[in-house]
Design brief:
Blueprint: H1 2-11, H2 21-32, H3 44-51, E1 60-61, E2 65-74, H4 77-84, E3 87-96, E4 107-117, E5 127-132, E6 135-140, E7 142-150, H5 151-156, E8 161-174, H6 178-189, H7 196-211, E9 219-224, H8 226-233, E10 238-245, E11 251-257, H9 269-288, E12 298-303, E13 307-312, E14 326-339, E15 342-347, E16 352-356, H10 367-372, E17 380-391, E18 396-407, E19 413-417, E20 423-428, E21 430-431
Parallel strand pairs: 7-21
Antiparallel strand pairs: 1-12, 2-13, 2-14, 3-8, 4-7, 4-8, 5-6, 9-11, 10-11, 12-13, 14-15, 15-16, 17-18, 19-20
């Protein structure tokens, strides 16, 4: 009731009309902060081309084991970048050649480029979609490669990369999120951290940018009779993605209906991608700080979208409770990291902190068993957990015990072992 009243009193919106936080956030932005005809609509070839630059946050594991490791977390990193920076707006222009001759304060561009590291970097930070070990991952490489690069990443990386711009899309640039972020963040701060409204405001802040990157697909899931199913297959404007034959009961079908025109589904993937690009630029500061040999007071072991595990201390100017600053979450007495989103540690107050992507009960894993996987000869650890399985034909859900195979991963960087076969570091992949 309190959330409904707050949203209505502040933005004159009925929360019941918006089934998701992202739809509510988008409605709030449009109701008060959106300037008419400011946001460019990306669709078709433009959407598909720019989408390749939308690689999300950067998550890397550099050193798999550490003691006295401090975990710093950013305060609303993406919203802070939305407030501080200009974004692509207005008409969309196609360009070829050196776009950097234009005034970088007035324009925003996304370019296809050939990129080369000037030397082999310990922690390269320009990431692309790249196939490693049989699957496509977002990987930061050494060597020469092609990518779709945002102008903010271009100017941030010139010390470490040679970049040749080929072509791309050009926009004007304006501050479009400042008032929205200021208002919602101020509202969030007026409530205690454990208050539900604080969490609602946090979700509203962090959900808006993704709405601009939604794919324009009219996906429908429906039970159909056999007659209706065969009619659907004859409709040239419908694309069947998948279907399940239910025998005498017909079919369950997942399809795209291009007959539906959703005029409210207006997106700008350039803006969504730009938010994540600015976020990567902000986090690149951790990767640019000299390594332990050059600076005994600092070393980075792991970085996520808006957090970092380090030995040492952050510069004072980066620490604080303000938007975009970093705060110390906790300190590990000891921590093991087997890959991105795959770590387990013991804090200074003897609490277990663990994250194992795809496994629900990470804190219940035995720490010594987890740590044993640092040994090159220990390939995996078999864990058991409950998984839910849907059976559409029988209209039921069953819960079954299933084995989860916990393994160290080398999908994004190659592990380095010492003479005893213990993982002590990683190195970036190189593309020539």
């Amino acid at each position: 009731m309190e959330k409904r009243k707050l949203v209505y009193n502040k933005w004159s919106l009925n929360i019941e009309n918006y089934p998701t936080i992202s739809s509510l956030s988008y409605a709030i932005y449009r109701s008060k902060y959106l300037i008419e005809n400011m946001i460019p609509i990306t669709s078709g070839k433009v959407f598909n081309w720019i989408k390749d630059s939308y690689t999300g946050g950067s998550t890397e594991m550099y050193i798999p084991y550490g003691k006295d490791v401090k975990v710093y977390d950013g305060t609303s990193l993406y919203p802070s970048q939305m407030k501080l920076n200009k974004f692509p707006v207005g008409p969309i222009y196609i360009f070829e050649g050196d776009v950097t001759i234009l005034d970088k304060d007035k324009h925003y561009w996304i370019a296809g480029a050939e990129v080369k590291t000037k030397r082999d970097l310990d922690r390269p930070y320009l990431q692309i979609h790249h196939k490693t070990n049989g699957s496509v991952r977002t990987v930061a490489l050494n060597g020469t490669f092609e990518m779709k690069i945002h102008c903010c990443e271009y100017y941030n990386s010139l010390d470490d990369y040679e970049i040749s711009i080929k072509n791309g899309y050009l926009f004007h640039s304006e501050y479009i999120f400042k008032d929205f972020v200021d208002d919602v963040f101020k509202l969030r701060q007026s409530y205690a951290k454990d208050h539900p409204i604080n969490l609602v405001c946090k979700l509203i802040l962090n959900s808006l940018y993704g709405r601009f990157g939604m794919r324009l697909i009219n996906n429908i899931q429906k039970f159909l009779s056999k007659q209706d199913f065969f009619k659907l297959t004859e409709d040239s404007n419908c694309e069947i993605e998948d279907f399940l034959d239910l025998g005498e009961n017909g079919f369950f079908v997942n399809y795209i209906d291009n007959n539906i025109k959703n005029n409210d589904h207006k997106v700008c993937v350039a803006i969504a991608s730009a938010v994540t690009a600015y976020g990567r630029v902000a986090m690149s500061i951790f990767k640019k700080i000299p390594d332990l040999k050059k600076n005994p007071g600092f070393i980075i072991l792991y970085s996520d979208t808006d957090s970092a595990f380090i030995i040492g201390n952050l510069p004072e100017e980066l620490i604080g409770n303000e938007l975009g600053k970093f705060k110390l979450e906790y300190t590990f007495k000891e921590v093991v990291m087997l890959g991105p989103k795959l770590y387990m540690g013991i804090t200074t107050d003897d609490k277990i902190v663990a994250k194992v992507k795809g496994f629900k009960n990470a804190k219940e894993i035995n720490y010594d068993d987890f740590k044993s996987l640092l040994n090159e000869n220990n390939v995996s650890l078999d864990l058991e957990h409950d998984k839910w399985f849907r059976n559409l034909q029988d209209s039921n859900i069953t819960i079954k015990k299933q084995i989860y195979k916990l393994m160290k991963t080398e999908n994004k960087r190659k592990l380095i072992y010492d003479d005893n076969g213990i993982a002590i570091g990683t190195e970036a992949f190189k593309k020539d």
